[in-house]
Structure formats: structure tokens, C-alpha cells
Design goal:
Blueprint: H1 2-19, H2 25-28, H3 32-39, H4 43-65, H5 73-92, H6 97-126, H7 131-138, H8 140-157
Length: 160
């Protein structure tokens, strides 16, 4: 049973690091030119919005991230998943500079920030003796996503 629980916790971390990709720069950059064209903005304007949304999300992450110590990990994880789903939906509906900022902020906060934080904190809490191996295995989720998602998105963008 203990081995089964170890597998479930590592799978949890793996899935969370995989889906943290939705807030990572490599993923959001796939839509850069489409967004700039749709909103008629320059590289510099997009970069300024992206940078300011990222900075704000990192400041907020410090405050929200510590809540993981006060809330049941599964409840916290479900909030993070819900926030990521909302941010992905908003990202798909960008129609103005304001919504661009809000959606990038939420994607960076929930995806890149909280999904990664939740995975790492959960693994670090659960494992003592083999913590490094467990974290290394968990972070393969991001590596797999960095390989699969760009190919998948570029393929899907040819149809839509």
C-alpha cells in the first residue's frame, strides 16, 4: 500500500508540473503573434504587458503560496486547478489590452506559479529519504510538456 501511495503522490506532482506549462513562457509565446495581430500591438507593448503581469503574479504568489500551509492540500490543489481553468478560458477570449493583462496574470499565477508550487510542496512534504529522486521524477512532467505541447498546439493551430 505504501508503494501505491508513493506512486499516487508522484503522479500528482507529475500532473501538476505538466499542467504548470499553461503558465510557462514557452507555452504563452506560442500565441504571441496571434494576440499581437488581433489586438494590433507591437512586440514592445506585448512584452511590457507580459512583464508587468508576470511581476504582479510573482508578488501575489508569495501571499497566496503560503496558504498551502493552512489549507488541506487536496482542497488547495482543487482551487489551483479551478483558477487555472478560469485563466485558460479567459486567455481564449482575449479581446482587449485589459483582458490580455488579466489573462496573462492569471495564467502566470495559476499555471507557472501555483501549479509548480503545489507539486513541489506536496512532494517535499511527503518524501523524506528519497525527496530528491521524487522531485526529479515529478519535474519530468514539465519536460514532457515542453516536448508535447508546442507540437500539439502548432498542429492544432493549423486547423483553427
Amino acid at each position: 500500500m505504501f508503494k501505491s501511495l508513493n506512486f499516487k503522490v508522484i503522479l500528482f506532482g507529475f500532473i501538476f508540473t505538466f499542467f504548470s506549462s499553461f503558465g510557462q513562457s514557452f507555452f504563452l509565446g506560442l500565441f504571441n503573434s496571434s494576440i499581437r495581430d488581433a489586438l494590433s500591438i507591437t512586440h514592445g507593448q506585448f512584452g511590457s504587458i507580459y512583464a508587468s503581469a508576470t511581476l504582479l503574479s510573482s508578488f501575489i504568489l508569495v501571499w497566496i503560496g503560503k496558504k498551502i500551509d493552512d489549507i488541506n492540500i487536496l482542497k488547495f490543489a482543487s482551487y489551483v486547478v479551478a483558477l487555472l481553468a478560469i485563466s485558460c478560458f479567459l486567455f481564449s477570449k482575449i479581446s482587449s489590452l485589459f483582458f490580455l493583462f488579466v489573462s496573462i496574470f492569471l495564467m502566470r499565477l495559476s499555471g507557472q506559479g501555483l501549479m509548480s508550487h503545489t507539486a513541489t510542496t506536496t512532494i517535499a512534504r511527503f518524501f523524506e529519504r528519497s525527496r530528491g529522486r521524487a522531485l526529479g521524477t515529478t519535474w519530468l512532467g514539465l519536460s514532457l510538456a515542453e516536448f508535447i505541447l508546442p507540437l500539439l498546439i502548432v498542429f492544432l493551430l493549423t486547423f483553427f
